[in-house]
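For the sake of transparency, this paper describes our internal protein records without simplification. Because each token names a local backbone shape, the row as a whole describes the fold. One such record is reproduced below, unchanged from the form in which we store it:
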Amino acid sequence: MPVVPSLIIAPIREEFLASLPQRVSTHPLGCHRRRIPDEVIFDKLIEVLVSGMGNERVADATCSATTLRRRRDEWIAAGAGEALRLAALAAYDRMIGLGLEQLSADGCQTKAPSGGECAGKSPVDRAKQGVKRSQLTEAYGIPLVTEPAPANIRDDTMLTVTLDRYADLDKTLGPLPSQPALSLDAGYDYRPVYAYLDTRGITAKTARRGERTPIQTDGRWVAERTDSWMNNFGKLRRCTERRRVCVEFFIALATAIITIRTLIRRA
């Protein structure tokens, strides 16, 4: 049984492979060993993403762990993961429509036992290595931006980088709403955050520090649900990748799966 249902993985695989640049062999004598098909490598990497297992445990007679890492790095250099994420968002926007007038942001901390470029001492896990994801979603919970950072970085300091990446989506989705509403939890209740949002023309719905505010009142539950969707992927729930580009690659794959899955359910 596949780790992701075929009705979800098939269109994702097709779009991903179509975005890859054409490979030209430069060896003067050719190669005696046939190249493993990209379809096999893609399915293996999806298994790595969903299960969280290492490449060595996923490898078998059809593909070695070294080939998995080498092909993954080729695809990262070609920007295939980000292209897939943007294509999924564009498809959802055309068929269903993204609710960009109402945004939600939240920070989520996960374990990173291997350390790495995106890891830091977690303040909620006895200073063990962890990764924080700054998550921005639209009204239904489709992940628009997922920015990884060390776990000891505060949520409010990551908001500017997250919203800057959101602004770049106009190249894919067209003009974005000029004055969206943004739901935030108490971790963003600071004056610099309000000042920054005023300059961006964003209306903030922020829970106050020290006050008990139900999560259903201001729409923050949408981002919390998206965090839960992301944590269903073993590679993101317990990140063992040390390089930032690898973390971003698997985040892009997870975002595409969540987007296409929701598109199929709502279509």
Summary: DSSP finds eleven helices and six strands in the chain. The first strand starts at residue 102 and ends at 111.
